[in-house]
Amino acid sequence: MKNDLNDTITAISTPPGEGGIGIVRLSGKNALSIANKIFKAKNKKRITGNNSFTLCYGHVHNNGTSIDEALLTVMLAPKTYTREDIVELSCHGGSIPLRNTLELCLENGARLAGPGEFTRRAFLNGRIDLAQAEAVVNIIRSKTDTALKCALRQLDGGLSKTVNSIRDKLIDILAAIEASLDYPEDDIELFSGRKLLKKVMEAGREIEGLLKTAETGKILKEGLVTVLVGKPNVGKSSILNALLQEEKAIVTSIPGTTRDIVEDTINIYGIPVRILDTAGIRHTKNEIEIIGVRKSRKSLKTADLVLFVIDLSTRISSEDRLIAKDIKGRKLIIAANKSDLKQKTTEAEIKKLFPHHKRIPIIKLSATRRKGIKPLEKLIYNRFIKGGMNISDAVLVTDLRHKNALKNASDSINKSIKAIRDKSSEEFTALDLRQALDSLGEIVGRTTTEDILDRVFSRFCVGK
Fold this sequence. Notes:
The protein is α/β, with parallel strands linked by helices. Helix content is 44%, strand content 18%.
């Protein structure tokens, strides 16, 4: 991405389509001068450096010809999103007035912003760090209130403060080691032997603590992919409808009604859960049903959780056994459906399908009567949120980039611990700790490259 901070950039910052208001944003040293060329205030006053945090009514014009009625907002550096002068033109929210206003900004000296370039400037100008910048896009893409709270906490510096605290500890350890290397005649006892090992291990435990939140953070950000599987006519679609509290899937007594994957997202205690209702898995000669069965098996490969639906009103069949083999080793919950009917299958018989699994949660329910749905939701939540963690208040690792950086930092810490225990030269310990420091620095942007920045900000929309 072209990233000249001397340029004044512009973009439409509202979604395409019709709306009450659409915003064209300018950021950079020429934002005010460009605004004065294309906007005429009703009171005929020019926009100056004394107009910060003001709103002005007038018209966007092209050489005196009115383009649109608009409100102009002025925010002057450094107290702005980018720490540059920012002007926002709030036009009518149609594609034509917004496009014409954007073209006027470009014709008068602005450059079209790249994806996330406004936020990138906020990072480069030191208003936020890289983890906070990534939190911005997580806020925009939040699927639940809990996910939004997590992203807002990261924007407020929750993750950054934790990472920087660990970095500060490593810097103190490194400073002492390097001092002892530079001045061997001085006995720096504070970080020698056991005390050095203890301090490095403490930093390692803090990193591991963050890593343990990565699975929950990923689910909170991307959603928990949950696949409903079972033989035909066991009530998978009824369970989907009960969870969604709407008639999303067609339900009939005819086996094989569901031929394709039906998908929707629900909110379970703050976790976005993507529920996939699949075609019943069985041997069939019907070509369309064969395709559905093939899709069902494929969906299992990407599932975070499998809900294996078993019909309590029938005996365990060869089809149930076939599915049990397909989902071997997956994280699963057995939904024993049709508990309101006369039962022909026992819990003990269900457990025999998985002889090598000691603790597979089984929940009895009646989807058509919506009995057992709330306990099922609680069970889904508890399968992934362990130890009673309050995800609304916790600092979570939600990005794969952060997880990888923490993993690299942890590996480096473990190498330094081994070097200390082996009584290797402190130079080896210092080298490993520097690598850990650099890995942690990647999270907050202390150590980064243009490639990393391009990859981070490519996920943003153009106007943010």
